[in-house]
Amino acid sequence: MSQLANLADDLAFVRQRVDRVNRSVFPSSILFLWAGIILAGSVLLDLAPTMGGAFWLVAGPVGGVLSAVLGWRWSVALGVENMGLARRQMLHWGGLVAALLVSQLLVMSGAMRGDAFGAQVMLIVSLSYFYAGIHMHKSLLWLSGIQAAAFLVAVLVPTLPQSISGIVMAAGFVWVGIAAHRHLGNGAPPPLRR
Amino acid sequence: MTADPVRTSQWEGLDGLDRLLEHRSRLGIAVLLGRSTRMTFRHLKDLLEETDGNLGAHLKKMEGADYLNANKTFIDGKPVTWYSLTRVGQVALRKHLDALERIIANAAANDFDIFSKQQKGAHD
Q1: How many A-B residue pairs are in contact by the CB < 8 A criterion?
Q2: Which residue of A51, A149, B44, B117 has the smallest Cβ count within 10 Å?
């Protein structure tokens, strides 16, 4: 049986190594970038709604492009290029942008009330992070929970709801970003689970 | 002399194994590269916890068999070697994994617990 036992050992060895790749975390620089964008955009929505709308129109796509660049640079610095994962990321976050555009069109066409748009956006974004957490990076699951909490804050708090929910979300992004940075340390993969 | 039918069936698939990928470090390299587009020497070394010498020797063997491509680039002025699986390497890995699957299926059919490495009921 020794040959079969050796095969079992070899498979366990490979599985442990692959498991380390699966447990690698999301680049914290992207999370810090979005913490800043969300904080600024949310406060603007309460204090200067017109400027807030324009801000999101520009900051959303710019943030998306910057995220792609930061993610690619982080990946190259780590020493891995994965075009398959990059394609999945593009499709996933591109789908989020498409859903947001459709929501905007629904408001413009009168099919959806304008005051429901903010809640709709938060719901779509939260769901996007939830699916990204399930299918790509587990650490993003935390963010979907935090966004759901921020969604409740926006609904329940009467004064400055967007600002307060933005602060909750930005704090969540910073918290997950710091945790990701600590987890990754010097860029080495996570320890083996034996 | 006749072969033990149970024992023979357990080894079915062994002949489909790729000799080069029978070493677990080389199998690890192929699987890790098969899951990405390319990886650096350093990242492979970190993931596999191999020494520079051992990993270099494994990579050289695989490169010699045309399983891997190596490309040298510079990141922040430092030379970096990237490795990717060639088409030949991808096919070899697929065949090797298929053979492993057959062995595991045969082992399961013969009630052999591959993870506890014992024949179930051996102590009954």
Answers
A1: 76
A2: A51
Answer for the pair B66, B89: CB distance below 8 angstroms, yes or no. Answer: yes
Q: How many residues does this entry show for chain A?
A: 194
Contacts of B44 in chain A (CB under 8 A): 79
CA gyration radius for chain A?
Answer: 20
CA distance B77 to B97: 39
Chain A residues closer than 8 Å to B117 by CB: 1, 4-5, 8
| Mean pLDDT, rounded, for A47-74 | 91
By residue count, chain B amounts to: 124
Yes or no, beta carbons of B37 and A3 under 8 Å apart = no
Chain B within 8 Å of A185 (Cβ-Cβ)? Answer: no
pLDDT grade, residue B78 (50/70/90)?
confident
Phi (first) and psi of residue B69, to 5 degrees: -110, 140
Q: What stretch of H or E contains B112?
A: strand B112-113
**pTM of the predicted model as reported, rounded to 2 decimal places:** 0.76
A10 has a pLDDT exceeding 80: yes
Q: In what order do the strands lie in the sheet with B38-40?
A: A80-81, B38-40, B78-85, B68-75
What local confidence, expressed as pLDDT, does residue A140 receive?
A: 85
Instruction: For residue A39, name the pLDDT band (cuts at 50, 70, 90).
Output: very high
Q: Do B27 and A12 touch (CB under 8 A)?
A: no
Show the CA angle centred on residue A136, arms to residues A130 and A40, nearest 5°. 55
Cβ B35–A11 below 8 Å, yes or no? no
Place of tokens 């929970």: A145
3-class DSSP state of A137: coil
CA distances for A171 relative to A68, A146, B79, angstroms: 22, 9, 39
Separation in Å, CA of B25 to nearest CA in chain A: 8
Provide, as residue numbers in chain A, all residues whose Cβ is less than 8 Å from the Cβ of B75.
76-77
